[in-house]
Specification:
The protein is of the alpha/beta class. It has 19 helices and seven strands. Helix 1 runs parallel beside helix 3, helix 9 packs across helix 11 and helix 10 runs antiparallel to helix 11.
Length: 422
């Protein structure tokens, strides 16, 4: 609380208190100011607390009073034409940078403070440009596509060069990050809107991991989860929270999402407990449900070697391994395929997400089953699965010989499977 008070007190111009933003854009308080790196915040505080910095900020704010006020800017972009909006942002940036360089007492300003102001100006341009696309897309539920910006407007923004740990002290950069992830993920999806919000969040998380790291990635993932708790299943929320390094951010999310996660886990547990059990003699294995709604378990495949892939539709690392699974399968002889089963077991909480993923990913090289309930599902409880993807190998006698088997992409996997078929 202390660092939050100091930061807002001494940086009244660039940093504004954030309020709830409408237009279906759920916004939150500045989680970095409250839970981020105190050393970065202290450095920013030190740069802006001297008299010269404060005098500049007062003059800047007088000339450009609404530049960094998100509430006002988001309202402005709603009624703007995209070309007019970009030109307005371009002219603002040019004018503000000139104001900084031509400021009467510019030589007295700390060079690092000059860089801080310049960074806020430059990243505010990109923040508000990408925000135009996402906010305009979200307020119109009839749109089937995300509003794409003309290529000429974004060609200077290289996703591979967005990551910069030093910029975490820059509020405009922090505001930019969620829009960066959302916009460039939309671009990878050819700007087609998602019908499955769980997959949308998972894809955004994967894109963040592709281009960001360290504190920048931690902050971006935290913001993504914080603003979308209600759209995540308990399993997917716990997975993405586990990807965050900062204990402060993890605790924030666990508390913020607690009510939503507890309710979903309770529903999943009730579903699992209410399932009819298979006949006595096969209950050594957890109950699975096939795509056509029939119950089965691992005993169904006795006499064959079974390579079990535990996954979920929202799990990016799981999806990344599927091409290797297909390669393993396709590389086997017809005789080997007859003695081998690739079994994909989903822990999705929603069977529709599971079935949709099978179809969209074209997982046609094996059998499928679901153990509903996420981390509360039967397979997770039975085999102590705390993370996915997870793999398991069962021999011809039905014995689990490798409860934590190597991934399909591992060079040793094929040899393990072939030896068990001998």
């Amino acid at each position: 609380m202390f660092k939050n008070f100091i930061f807002l007190l001494t940086f009244p111009v660039i940093t504004f208190a954030q309020k709830t933003v409408g237009f279906k854009m759920s916004d939150s308080t500045d989680i970095f100011v409250e839970y981020g790196d105190g050393n970065i915040l202290k450095k920013a505080n030190d740069l802006i607390e001297n008299a010269d910095s404060q005098a500049f900020l007062a003059d800047f704010h007088k000339k450009y009073p609404n530049t960094f006020d998100k509430d006002i800017r988001y309202v402005q972009l709603i009624s703007a034409n995209v070309d007019d909006w970009e030109m307005k942002l371009y002219d603002e940036r040019k004018s503000q940078l000139a104001f900084l360089k031509n400021y009467l007492n510019f030589p007295k300003l700390n060079p690092e403070f000059q860089s801080l102001v310049e960074a806020n100006i430059r990243w505010n341009y990109w923040h508000l440009l990408l925000a135009y696309s996402i906010i305009r897309s979200n307020i119109d539920s009839k749109l089937t596509r995300v509003v794409s910006l003309p290529t000429v407007m974004t060609e200077e923004l290289d996703p591979a060069k967005v990551y910069d740990e030093k910029l975490m002290m820059v509020e405009s950069y922090r505001n930019f990050l969620p829009y960066f992830v959302t916009y460039f993920n939309s671009q990878e999806q050819k700007f087609i809107k998602y019908s499955d919000q769980l997959k949308a969040i998972s894809d955004k998380g994967n894109l963040a991991q592709k281009y960001l790291k360290g504190q920048v990635l931690d902050y971006t993932l935290t913001k993504l989860i914080y603003d979308n708790c209600g759209k995540l299943t308990a399993s997917s929320a716990k997975f993405w929270i586990s990807q965050i390094i900062s204990n402060d951010y993890r605790n924030l999310l666990l508390n913020h999402c607690k009510e939503s996660l507890n309710k979903k886990e309770e529903v999943a547990k009730k579903k699992e407990d209410s399932k009819d059990k298979l006949p006595l003699g096969t209950s050594v294995y957890p109950v699975l449900m096939s795509i056509d709604g029939k119950q089965f378990n691992f005993a169904k495949f006795k006499g064959k070697v079974v390579y079990v892939d535990f996954w979920a539709s929202w799990c990016g690392p799981c999806r990344a391994e599927f091409p290797f699974s297909k390669k393993l399968h396709d590389g086997m002889s017809e005789k080997q395929k007859k003695n081998m089963v690739f079994l994909y077991v989903s822990i999705d909480e929603d069977p529709n997400n599971w079935k949709g993923a099978i179809e969209s990913l074209k997982l046609d090289n094996g059998d499928h089953g679901i153990s509903e309930g996420g981390w509360a599902s039967g397979v997770c409880q039975k085999y102590k699965i705390n993370s996915i993807p997870r793999y398991m190998i069962i021999d011809k006698n039905g014995t689990i010989v490798r409860p934590d088997a190597p991934r399909p992409s591992s060079p040793e996997t094929l040899d393990l499977l072939l030896k068990l078929m001998e």
